[in-house]
Write a structure and sequence with these properties.
132 residues; mainly alpha; 3 helices
């Protein structure tokens, strides 16, 4: 008898769930119908030819902006026939020259061991005096 009651309860629960599902489906269908009507109404407000014209105008304007940027990006001092490889080679030469100059400066800045600075203490030996 307990199994029979359990089966009956299961059937009631399944029926209740089915009823809830149908009601939810009905609500969903009603909302979808309303949304479809609203969407159709709102779409009628949009003029497709105006939209296409506007998109074409926007495309033309963006193309013009690109041309303007290209014109403004032109270099005045660079001849037309300059290749990027030539520029890279010249840059490498300049970098080599700078590295050589840095080595020369470092050698010139080196303090000889017999310099008068070598006799100076590495840290101060007395506190500075305050003038009043």
């Amino acid at each position: 008898q307990r199994d029979q009651m359990s089966n009956q309860q299961f059937n009631v629960d399944q029926t209740s769930f089915a009823i809830e599902t149908v009601r939810s489906t009905q609500t969903t269908v009603a909302v979808m119908k309303t949304a479809a009507k609203t969407l159709k109404k709102e779409n009628k407000k949009i003029n497709l030819s105006e939209l296409e014209d506007m998109q074409d105008e926007m495309e033309d304007m963006l193309e013009d902006v690109g041309e303007i940027s290209e014109i403004l990006g032109r270099s005045y001092g660079c001849p037309d026939g300059v290749e990027e490889e030539d520029l890279d080679a010249e840059l490498a030469c300049l970098e080599d020259e700078m590295a050589t100059e840095e080595v020369d400066f470092a050698a010139a800045d080196a303090v000889p061991q017999d310099s008068y600075l070598s006799s100076m203490p590495s840290e101060p030996t007395a506190a500075p005096s305050v003038f009043s």
